[in-house]
Each structure stands twice: as structure tokens, then as C-alpha cells.
Amino acid sequence: MGSEIQEIKNTIIQGLPKRVQVAKVEFEGPEVVIYTKNPEIITENGDLIRDLAKDIRKRIIIRSDRSVLMEPENSIKKIQEIVPEDAKITDISFDDVTCEVIIEARKPGLVIGKYGSTSREIVKNTGWAPKILRTPPITSEVIQRVRRTLRKNSKERKKILQTLGNRIHREIPGENEWTRLTALGGFREVGRSSILMQTSNSNILLDCGVNVAGTDDKSSYPYLNVPEFSLDNLDAVIISHAHLDHSGFLPYLYHYGYEGPVYCTTPTRDLMTLLQLDHIDIAHREDNPLPFNIKHVKKSIKHTITLDYGEVTDIAPDIRLTLHNAGHILGSAITHMHIGDGQHNFVYTGDFKYERSRLLEPAVAKFPRIESMVMESTYGGHEDVQPTRNEAEKELIKTIYNTLQRGGKVLVPVFAVGRAQEIMIVLEEYIRNGIIDEVPVYIDGMIWEATAIHTARPEYLSKDLRDQIFHMGKNPFMSEVFHKVNGGNERQSIVEGDPCIILSTSGMLTGGNSVDYFKWLCEDEKNSIIFVGYQSEGTLGRRLQKGWKEIPLKEEGKTNVYNVKMQIKTVHGFSGHSDRKQLMDYVRRLSPKPEKIMVCHGDNYKTLDLASSIYRTYKIETKTPMNLETIRIQ
Ligand SMILES: [Zn+2]
Question: Which domains does the chain have, with CATH numbers?
Fold first, then answer.
């Protein structure tokens, strides 16, 4: 065991008042856990732990020694006495391994209490350290599944975290001397994002995506077979956000024996689980199985360490990680890494949006320090200027209004995560304000589950939404205008019924229920289809945008031709990516300015276009690496 661990333990024990009986001090991943026989002394002296944590620069968790825990049955009674009924507790369970009581409640804030007063009462009275979770107002199967997996595997998880604690605090031969990045995927292309960051002491993988449009293994997955990459030496994987082009290949690492941690935000963990499971499911149905399965998704859940925005965490002996809001989808993060003893600071933007949306705040542009940065360039071409949100909303509402006026139905094919919820918020507001008629909005497929995950994490939403949810008690996702579609028969009655709005996956009409809706609705000129997201070349969505009027579709072995009479409309401006102007604005507003920017995640010419504009405008050195290139950044 490294002497650093011993040193930290000594500092803690010396820093606590003599009357605190410390049973043991353990490392669980990046955190330090103190087990004590009198937790009330520590919890009542909040400053004590805050000062200690500052001293050792780690997060400290206090738990009771097993000997002072109250019987579960009595503890439940006690907790119900202490917590106000308004908190609406839905479940209480006990974790013997960590000596925690897991309390799930509709209003977790009331279980915590003012400045943590209620939760301190629970510790004082029962000994159990409360772990408080929000019960989402819309039931999410994925969240239930993730929580169940963690609860059932608590013992294994503790072992994983202890092993990791030792690895993070291992002794290293000397100061960090250099840092280099190797582009493993997602450079001069969109898809399969992955970057290997190596210092003289550690190895970190940033994102591990798939290219869902890839035609074979060579174009679908990142280049993990390079000599630099080794699963055994990998200290950590960081996932910027849940989209499959950033997270889809993660289960593969666990299939091939990776035993280390994944760092991401809680919504990213839940949303990527949803998307990964769906990906496996679709591949299976299309008889095109992936090189991993559900087991490996589960394994990755057990190894995931979730971080909030702004929380500083040691992930290797020489690297501190902080995640910041990226404004792209729920839980999306910009990764900041502090390398060595302040020698270098690196930022990876991932996908980001530098504009306030209905759903999220704009991406963070202020950091303590940055020397080098990797940024995306999806809309990096000089012509990639999008309308503002406001203009986009007006355009969307106008089309919907006209369609409903003439007695038609509106189909919005949409990606399940992000755009769907953004559109839902817009629709709810315009219907509530009476600008469009109060027609039912049908939510089909995975969108409902993704929305449920959004309702579990209101603290990650925009300030406006949080105000609505927390202060006015109005959660727009819970509005009565939204109806979940439960299966095939219901779809039939929806398309035969009165005017309505339908949100359905897939977003590019490449499969899923949106294609069925399209078939039912396309031959009636009263109806409309509205595209709010990017349509790739070769997809049905793109063909409709190009004005195809006769669409041949294969059904049960034969080809039927559909005559498209419905209105086809594309509304730009709802993208979760920054447009060209926002990308340039972001660099202008970055504080402090990096010395070097590497551009990724864009078509070849957009990457080059953005990089040269940044250089010409701001005189910052830029680089546009290709996949497989390595660049030294320190
Ligand atoms: Zn994305």
C-alpha cells in the first residue's frame, strides 16, 4: 500500500477530536470513508470535515461502525417519524456492506432538510448514513434497473472501489514529464469518438463511441488496436455524454477484461444505459449482433463513478478531473483535466452547445486554467449558421398551427434523447398559452423512457425549468397534453383519430415507429412531417427533404410504393450542437485562452475550415489531427 494512503489516514485521525472513535479509514475509489462509533459528533461539526477535506484535497464520507447501527425494522419507523410526510418516501432499503440506508423519495430535498438537518437526525437516531435518491415522477425502467444492479452488487462494488482507491493513490516514479493525445476515432469525421490521453505516469480514455452508420468493423469502432493502447494500463474512461457515438463501445472494453472505472455524470450513466441496451436490441433484431451484450452493459454500470458538475476528483496519481456543463444533452459534460502538479491543463469539449436552450444552460467557457483543448466542429463550416432558437420555435409552431387548422396530423420524427424533450417543452408552452389548439401530443417509443430520466434529474435542467419545477411545482413533462403510446393497436387508432401531434423515433426514419406513422400519414395532403434534426445522406428522411414523391418501401418481402402528399417541412435551429457562429463565439469567450486547439468531430473540410478560422481570428495555434495521429501537448 502506498505511503500516500497512510499519510492521508494519519492526517485524518490527527485532525479529528479525541472523543471521535475511528473504527477504520478506507479508500473507495477517489473518496475517503471514515467509519466511526460516534458519527453524530462529526456530522454535527460540519466545518470539521470541510476543513479536513480541504487539507487532504479529497471528498470525505462519514459512516457508522456496524456496532452502532439500529435494527432495520426500528430504523424504518424512526426515519418515518423524522422525515416529513410531504417528502413522499417510496422506498427504504439497507446496504449492509456500506452501512447506508437508501431512501427513495419524491421530494428528496425534504429528506435532506435545511442544511442537511433532517439527514443528520437520521444518522444520530439510527446510525445509518442516508443515501437519498429521487423517485422520478415518471417511472423509469432504466433507473430502476441501474439502482437494482448497484444494490444487488454492493459487495462487489466496494471491492472494485477499494482496488481503485489503491490504484489512484499508487506511488509514481517521478513528476509528470510529458502528455500526449492519440486520436482513436471521431477525427475528421463524426462518429466513434475516442481519444487516448497518456502522461508519463497514466493512461486515460476520453469517450468510447461507435459509428452507427459504419458499414464494417473497421469504420464502426475506434482504433483500439494501436500499440499505445492497453486495457491493463488504462486508469480511467471518461464519457462526455450518452450519445452512442461517444459511449456506444464502452461495453466492449468490459467484454475484453477492463476492470477499471468509468467517470461521467449520473444522467449520462442512465441515458447511455438506455441507448446501449437499445443498440444491442436493434442489432439483435436485425440479426447483426454487436461484439458485446447486456452482461457487459451491466458490468460497466458496476464500474461507473458518477460526478456532479464542478466536483474535482483524483482519477490517477497525476490527474484531477472536473466535469462542466456542455449544454448539449442532459448530463453532457466538458472535461477539464489538471495534469501533474499544475504543469498542464487540458479541456475536451465533447459535443457542446454555446446557446441557452429550453432544456439546458449554455456550455461553460470559464476554467481555472487551460493550456490545450480539443473541440468539436460538427457545424464548423463557415456556411453552417443556424437560425436562433426563437426563429426555430416560430417556424415549428407555424407549421403545426396550419396543419391542425386544416384538420391534419403532425409527425415529428425525433431522436429519443435531447431533441425530443426540447420539442416537448416548446409544445407544452404553446398549448398552455393557447397559441396552438389543445390536441393530444403522442409520445412513442424510447422517447418516453428518456423523458422519465429527465424528470429524475431536474437539477441538470435549465434554470427556467428548475424554477418551474421546484418553485412553481409545475413540471412541463408531466403535462396532461402528453400521452404515452402503448403498442401497435393504439397507433392505429391514433392515425385514424382526430388531429394530433406525434413524436416518434427514429429521427431520420431509418426504422422504428416513425416509419410506420409516415406510411399511414404520408398520402393525405392535410398531414405534415417536420424534421427538427440532421438527416444523413441515404436515409428516408433525407429523400423526403430532397422532394421525393414516390417512396418504395420493403414490407414483408415485397416492395410497396407510397405517394407522398403530406407537407414536408424542415426546421433548423433545434440542434444540440453549436453552429459556426457559436463555435467561434465560444473560443472568443474562453477564459483563459488556450495555447493550442485541436479540432475534432466534424467532416474533413468543416474541421479544417474551423481550425483555420480560429487561427486567423484569434492567433491560437490549431491542429487538425487525423485518426491514429499522436500529438504531444506538454
Ligand atoms: Zn452528441
Answer: 67-150 (3.30.300.20), 178-383+577-632 (3.60.15.10), 389-570 (3.40.50.10890)
